[in-house]
Amino acid sequence: SYTPARRLSVQTLDNGMTAMDFRLAAQPASPAVERSSFSDVSFLGDSLTQGMQLYDTGLPNAHFCAYKGVGPNAVVNNTTPCRRADGEKEVPMEALASQQPRALYILLGTNVLTADSDYTSFLTYYRLMLDMISQALPNTKIYVQSITPVRPEVSKKSPGLYKERLCEINDALSAIALEKGCTFLNLWEALADENGDLIEEYAQPDGYHLLPAGYDAWVDYLCTHT
Fold first, then answer.
1. How many helices, marked H, and strands, marked E, lie in the chain?
2. Closest Cα partner for 171 from 16, 54, 23, 13?
3. How far apart are alpha carbons 21 and 8 in whole angstroms?
4. pLDDT in tens, the chain (226 residues)
5. Quick check: 161 and 206 in contact, CB under 8 A?
6. Are 66 and 47 in contact (CB under 8 A)?
7. Closest by alpha carbon to 199, among 156, 154, 129, 151?
8. Cα–Cα distance, 17 to 25 (Å, whole number)
9. What's the angle, vertex CA 152, arms to CA 9 and CA 158, rounded to 5?
10. How far apart are CA 118 and CA 104, in angstroms?
């Protein structure tokens, strides 16, 4: 019953940004909160989010539903167990429902967008996933995080991961977030350089996973965008 996402019509502004530019849809900065305030929130994501769990990011009490290689379709499936960083398996929606967090931070997409092909299915699954989460967690504030920037060389091995395409997908994600009553977070403010590439000092050798310094900048951004 979910119609495929359609290409959005956009209007270019005088400064070069567009009306559906994800930078315009993002949550503005707010007074910083302590990292300890994340003790009753959950993070849903793939290996990028696993890194936040494994490195010393100052969020030791947060809950993590992070599974290497997954996309929103794995969450929507709701029956297939996914493997956590500690090797144990769980069904993501069941884990989230048991946690009932105050807030949920979602970052999914990098693993399922590696090919430079149509991403309609990804957006449709993402929309359905947000509906399912909203129903299961009616009192949870949902934050949709932008797909993170990558280094320029990443596209050689993963033709779908280049900044122009990721910006286009983030435009659509920001529109979906607003449509579903979620808050959109632009991680590029914390992780991208002036060219729109992942800051070199934050990048693992593969060009898209993060070093501890990158996670530190990411968490600082979350603390100032609540």
1. 8, 7
2. 23
3. 11
4. 444 444 444 556 677 765 567 887 889 999 999 999 999 999 999 999 999 999 877 787 899 999 999 999 999 998 889 999 999 999 999 999 999 999 999 999 998 999 999 999 999 999 999 999 999 999 999 999 999 999 999 999 999 999 999 999 999 999 899 889 999 999 999 999 999 999 999 999 999 999 999 999 999 999 999 9
5. no
6. yes
7. 151
8. 11
9. 80
10. 28
Enter the tokens of residue 2: 């979910």
What is the rounded CA–CA span in Å between residue 209 and residue 218? 12
Dihedral angle computed from the Cα positions of residues 219, 222, 223 and 226, in that order, rounded to the nearest 10 degrees: -170
Q: Can you read off the two tokens belonging to residue 183?
A: 């808050």
One-letter amino acid identity for 178?
A: L
Considering all CA atoms of the chain, what is the largest pairwise distance in Å, rounded to the nearest integer? 51
CA 37, distance to chain mean position in Å, is 20
CA Rg, the chain, in Å?
Answer: 16
- Residue 132 exposure: Cα atoms within 13 Å on the Cβ side: 19
Distance separating alpha carbons of residues 19 and 175, to the nearest angstrom = 10
pTM score, two decimals?
Answer: 0.91
Q: Which amino acid is at 15?
A: N
Residue among 206, 202, 196 at smallest CA distance from 219: 202
